[in-house]
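User: Fold this; C-alpha cells only.

Assistant: Input:
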Amino acid sequence: METTKVLVEEDIVIVGAGIAGLTTALGLHRLGIPSLVLESSDKLRDTGFALSIWKNGWKALDAVDAANTLRSKHPQLERSGTTSLITGQQTSTISFKEQGKNEIRCVRRHIMLEALASELSSDTIRYLSKVVAIEETGFFKMLHLSDGTTIKTKVLIGCDGVNSLVAKWLGFKEAAFTRRCEIRGCAEYKNNHGFEPKFMQFFGDGFRAGVIPTDEKGIYWFFTWNPTREDKDLEHNPAKLKHFALDKLEKMPSDVRSIIENTELDNFFLSRLRYRHPWELLFGNISKGNVCVAGDAFHPMMPDIGQGGCSALEDGVVLARCLGEVFSKKQGTHLKDDDEEKKQYKRIEEAMKKYANERRWRGIDLISTSYMVGFIQQGGSKLVGFMRDKLLATFLGGLLLKKSDFDCGKLHNHQ
C-alpha cells in the first residue's frame, strides 16, 4: 500500500527537539518568528538524565527568558572537590562563590527540555517526524519524512544530534569515536538525600567519576573509562554496568559510593564518547546556502568541561538572532516573485554565514579543550597521573571556569 504524500510549506524547519533545537525555536518565538521543530521520537528525549549548566549557559537561558523556572528547581553549586582514589588525597578544591559571579547548577534534562518546549506554541513541535532525505529545489529545501510527508522550507537547521543527517548533507563525516566510554546514572531518593550542593570528582587509574546533586531528592553521577574487549557485554546489561562501576570505585568514600548502589537499574545509561575533529569545523561547512547545524550535530565534544549543553544553548541564541534579522516584521516574508525569493535567499545565506563565523572558533576551542582535559583527567600513565594530581589540578579547575566565562549576547543586537 502506497503512503499518501502530503506537502507542507514552512519558513523555518528545525530538525531535532533537543537543547539546541528548542533553544533556537524559543529564541525565534521570542522575536515573533514561527518555526517547525521535527522530532523523530514520540516525546521529548531526556537521555543522560542531567547536565551541568555553567555561567555561559545561564546567560543564554536568560536571553530566551527560560532561566528562572530552572533556577527555582535546581540549587546553585557552592564548590567542587577533587580526590585521587590512588592516593586517597584531595588534590584540589574550588569555591565557586569565591571565584566571582559563577552560576553553576546541575539541571535535570527532562525539566530543561520541558521548560523550553512549554514556552512554544502548541503546534511548534511535530513528533514522530523522522527526516529520511533532503532535496534541493530552487531556493528551497524539500524534506522527505518517513511517513510520506514532504516539507518545503526556506531554512533548514540541523539540531539532530551526533548522528545528524543534516550534518552529513553539509559534508561532515561521522563523529569520531574516542577510546572512552561513559556510564551515567541518577539516584532518586524519597526524602532529602543529605548531600550538600557540591561537585565531587574522583580520579583513579584510567578512570574518572563525578557526583552532583540536582536537587534535594536527586543525585546525578557519571563514570568514564577506557574499555577493553572484555567490557563489550556491558552495553545491554544494567546489572553488569552497576557491578562494574561499583567494583572500579571500591575506594570511593562509602557514603558517595552508596549513591550508585541506590541507583535503580532503569537509571543506568552507557555511551561511547564521540567528538568532531576541530579541523573539520575549521574547513567544513557549518552552513551552506539556507542550511546549517547546531548543538551536537555541529560540535559533539567530550563531557570533561561540561560545555556540551551550554554551547548548544549558545548556538540557539546566536542562530535565532541572526535569522531574526532576516525574518523580522520589517523585512517581511511574503514573496511575490522569483526576484524577491532570490533576495530573501541571499539574506538567509548571509545570516547563516554570520552564525557560522560567530560560532566556528568557539566550537573549535571547546572541542579541543574538552579533549585535552579528558586526556589529562583520565590518563592511565603514571606521568599523566602525577601531572594531574600534583601540577595541574588547580589549573584544570580554573580552566572550566574560564571556558564558562563567555556571553553569547542577547536576542536583539541593540539589547
